[in-house]
Design a protein that fits this description.
With about 110 residues, the protein is an alpha+beta fold. It has a domain at about 1-70: Dipeptide-binding Protein, domain 1 (Alpha-Beta Complex), CATH 3.90.76. The chain has helices at about 1-5, 55-70; strands spanning about 10, 20-25, 25-30, 35-40, 95, 105. Strands 1-2 form a two-stranded antiparallel ribbon. A two-stranded antiparallel ribbon has the order 3-4. Strands 5-6 form a two-stranded antiparallel sheet. The longest helix has 13 residues, at about 55-70.
Length: about 110
């Protein structure tokens, strides 16, 4: 739903995940601080439907809105809140017991 509501800064080709992202609302991006900071250059001339220009403050507002409201997040590439750093537990596999086997068979 997020991709239907918000235009992205960059477009990603999920069929070719190693290809570079395509600039969309951002005209460029640059990593710094050893990968800790990502800076976008907003494409000039982008306007909202009411004619007002899009600013960096608008991008920050939307990013923070998505980070604070997990219900707005999607599985599409984009800002998502990092979940717990703990590894997830594997779900137990369903088991069945056959009358001819002394131990359960798990798939």
């Amino acid at each position: 739903m997020q991709s239907l509501t918000y235009e992205p800064l960059l477009e990603f080709n999920l069929m070719q995940p190693t290809s570079a992202p395509v600039p969309w609302l951002a005209s460029a991006y640059q990593w710094s601080d050893g990968g800790g900071t990502l800076t976008f250059t907003i494409r000039p001339g982008v306007k909202f439907s009411d004619g007002k220009p899009m600013t960096a403050a608008d991008v920050a507002f939307t990013f923070n809105l998505l980070m604070k409201n997990s219900a707005l997040a999607s599985s599409a590439p984009g800002p998502t809140r990092r979940q717990s750093a703990r590894p997830r537990r594997a779900r137990p596999r369903p088991c069945s017991r056959s009358p001819s086997l002394s131990t359960p068979t798990c798939s």
